[in-house]
Amino acid sequence: MSRPPGSLHPRRPLVNERRVVEFAPKDAQLRDDVRTLGALVGDVLREQRGDAFFQLVERVRHAAIAGADNELHALIRALPPRDAETLVRAFATYFEVVNLAERIHRIRRRRDYLRSASDPQEGSLESTALRLAASGITPPQIAALLQRLRVEPVFTAHPTEATRRTLLEKEQVIGRLLVERLDPSRTPDEERAALARIREEVTAAWQTDPHPSTRPTVMDELENVVFYLTDVIYRIVPPFSEELEQAVHKAYTVEVPTRPVLRFGSWVGGDMDGNPNVGAETLRAAFARQRELVLDRYRREAAELARRLSQSGALTGVSDAVRERVANYGAQFPKALATIPTRYHDMPYRVLFRLIAARLEATRRDTPEGYAGTDEVERDLGMVIASLRAHRGEHAGLFGVQRLLRRVETFGFHLATIDVRQHAHVHRAVLATLLRDPEWNARTAADRLTRLRRVLEKGDEPAGSPDAQATRTLEVFQAIADCRARFGPEAVGPYIISMAQGADDVLTVLVLARWGGLGRNGHVPLDVAPLFETVADLEGAPDVMRVLLDEPYYRAHLAERHMHQIVMIGYSDSNKDAGIGASRWALHRAQARLVETTEQSGVDLTFFHGRGGTVSRGGGRITSAILSAPPRSVRGWYRMTEQGEAINAKYGLRGIAMRTLEQTVSAVALATALPHPPDAREPGWTSIMDAIAKGSRAAYRALVYDDPQFVEYFRRATPIDVIQRMEIGSRPASRQGADQQSGEIQQLRAIPWVFAWTQSRHLLPGWYGLGTALDGAVKRHGAAALGEMISDWPFLRALVDDVEMVLATADLTIAARYAGLAGQLGERYFPLIRAEFDRTVANVLALKHEHALLDSDPALQRSILLRNPYVDPMSLLQIDLLERWRAEGRPDNEVFRALLASVRGIAQGLQSTG
After folding, report:
1. C-alpha 544: how far from its chain's center?
2. Residues 6 or more apart from 777 whose CB is under 8 A from it?
3. pTM to 2 decimals?
4. Tens of pLDDT, residues 721-744
5. Catalytic positions, please?
6. Among residues 626, 544, 623, which one has the least CA distance to residue 588?
7. Quick one: CA torsion of 677, 678, 680, 686, rounded to 10 degrees?
8. How far is CA 644 from CA 194, 498, 648, 914, in A?
9. Is the separation of the CB atoms in 484 and 524 below 8 Å?
10. What does DSSP assign to residue 734?
11. What CA–CA distance (Å, rounded) separates 464 from 385?
């Protein structure tokens, strides 16, 4: 194993001398759960691998906790690859149960709060409704807000989440069993039975190969996403709506009409950017699969309602409309009617729901007798609801029918909208072919815009014959038209243009859409969303949108779209381009200026936030992010991507998913409805932040981009070469044209860039450069001024809080070991990295008046302290394996397989990939 060079703190202990995790009294049950589950995992390891292996795991664990550098080094050095892989899997299994235990503890704490607290929990829907009422928001205003309110998480299939679906299902079972253990009335026998079932699932997971044998297909990725939609989110939508209704009613004491505020989206099957495996066929296939799944859910729910609604018409009375519908459907589905026993024929609701189930099945099979659209299903359910209310049925089945109606209103026949995305350069290349203009991409944006305007106004047809790329592109627009017709007009989400740089990029999509058969009557029924990603593009976005919104043809297009414009902003590439400080400020300023631009043009703007799972890619505390957004930038509709392990962390369990959505909806409601104070309270704060962003960007780029040798340090001090070969996503890790030269970092996607730095415990993209910038700001303006800004400006406070979380998660002692893999480059670069890390930590602690990182968030502090000692052995194993694998020429062998296990294990331990 590499030892860090002399300048990399050789005497610094590998881990802290002793890391004792202190549990607050309210967390004592979490401590007990961790011990119980840890012992259970130990029993599984002893059973499956023998006592000798179990003792090795225990020695490694105790050495890591105690900071016994030499002992830990001796235990893991040069382990045979299979033993190394098994050891990593053992620690990863510990993390699986610890992660679950922490999520279950969140559910437990929420239940305790609801039982005992007199005031509603902060961030709850009830707390939010009461705050809005206390702020003077009237019943008509809250009704208008609820009509506008819409929160739409969009699940993406970026190659970060490495968990197989079968293991997710086992995690669900364990999670449900752990939730059941919260019942204090359980008997000892029931507790033993639950632990036995948990052990069964843990053992089966241990015996399941976690590595996909081949790179997942797009449809494999779809199965991962729909798992959360059908197994978790589908179940919680009705109770969420009910909780919202109750919260509003309690705050306003009057009936305020509500509508579903949740919608869900997906990129799986429609994200073509850099993925040659996505196109018209995957879009159709993804929609067909989603439709099949949601219709099957509806059919089963209708069948269950038929079982529950046993009212006899002669006893209770039923509306004429229900009886008429039974007669009509009976004639339409005679085979289904024949299967219903005669004794049920005086149970009209039961018969009707049997026939509704039959019609839903006909819809799934695409026969003419099926429902033409969800409006017909909603009419059937509304008719039953009205009949139940008119005949004393409010407590005799109404609840279940209303829940099905909520689901139909939320999921439609498509389950989740599917967005379509493609890179602007692809569109330009296709137009060059179809316009027979090989110089198209070299022309100025203004020249391209003039030509496109002429094509649209005159209805010109393509001048050239399509090549393979143009054919694929046009077929996608035909597929969009077909999917809108079959799955509903709301099924297809916005068409997103990656790396959009001019108004011509938006008009290009309208031209291609018309040529592809979408909107032959002159109107293209599609929201086109430019995606501004780099700092330069974010700075230019307001001017681009001003030109676009001044275009008469495009304004006519918007008039058909209710004068509503979606703009997507990217957190990942702007961070990779300029570092955390400059990226966040560029995003903030772009939003503020885009709000001004669209307001002046009379356009309703919705931001689509392209957030990743990590802080450097826009992750972090979502509530703080929403409430610290520029004034008027949150307007009721909030759209954001959910990626990688963040999906499982936020939506893997029903209780956690409810809390996630509750906090998000609450923050959006508050940001939309409450008066907007000035963004920066003092005029000078903006100029100070300009200087911080400039200094942060200069320091970051000086290291990452201006020094041509840094890319080699990155390649040698991180496991990027392993990550690029992992079979965990259908999309390549680098954009086309990536090479090993100085431009490699530009070509590398943001996800593997962050993933690699996370694995090596640097977490560099989440903090580098900010320490230097804060140093300069303190020298120029004083610590008191900066401290006041952090205290009173939500934007800067959210930025510093997020960076603090990254600093606490990073481990520069372990990072030094990775730096040792880079030899002399490590001697050169790591001292610079270490110095900037220390500088950033010192500034954060001083400005927040803390003694240790995360003193203000003890729960997160505890979580990190609980994990790091168990991550350290996996990191050291990975370093040893990297050294061996690279020396052998990077073959696909047992060492590589052990490396794959180490990547997954560290990702689980840190709960972060990229």
Report:
1. 28
2. 688, 691, 692, 695, 786
3. 0.91
4. 999 888 655 555 455 543 333 357
5. 158, 576
6. 626
7. 160
8. 30, 20, 8, 7
9. no
10. B
11. 57
